[in-house]
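On clarity, I found the account of how folds are encoded harder to follow than it need be. What matters is that the chain and its backbone geometry are given together, residue for residue. For the editor and my fellow referees, an illustration may be useful. For illustration, here is how one protein appears when written out as sequence plus structure tokens:

___
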Amino acid sequence: MLDPATWALLCSAALLAGWIDAVVGGGGLIQLPALLIGLPGAQPAQLLATNKLGSICGTSVSAVTYYRRIRPDLRTALPMAVAAYVGAIAGALVGLHIPKAAFNPIILVLLVAVGAYTVFKPSLGSVTALRHGGRRHTSYAVLVGLVIGSYDGALGPGTGSFFVFALVGWLGYAFLQASAKAKIANFATNLGALTVFVPQGQVIWTVGLVMGALNLVGGYLGARTAVKLGSGFVRVVFVLVVTAFIVKISGSLIGIWS
């Protein structure tokens, strides 16, 4: 039985994580550590599974909100989402046998590269200027979904941000359009991971559903905020979230915090 202070921590984290996830991805930076603090006796798989249940509530409502207001091209978003779903299932199965600590240095290098590229190229993501067309464009979107989906299933931190960056930096979308498509793909990766975790009985349902309700509210508010303020606002939040990831992972590697 959780005490009121723990519930307050988990609910606050879920609300804020939903908002950040809807704007640019990366809500797991807040929600998963809160679960680690609030449920110290839970197994890692239980924490990951419960986090995915909470997250999928937020990504579902933010994906719908983005679709209704931005109308992202489903000819790109849906194939990418299907590939992301398949990749997440494969990643979750493989990730059970991989020491996750080994990924931190790789993730750190990727985040530094992503953040630096975004900061030093101010025009990036300001407008949509697709770099590929036709089948090549769709094929690259599918590849993005498969690779990042596999990563999310196996490990996960920064998935939404990686989706946004791949869509902006490689395919040429504006940040707002990229966030809309990223939410659809991120919903699929969460669903794929739960396809593995639920049959194994890893989800802590009471905690996951309560956090999911708050994540849903945060996702709705975040999507509306991003749509209202546009790509420039999303770009700023993207840089801040990537910086927070870099600080957190760097601190973990040098032993400042676990």
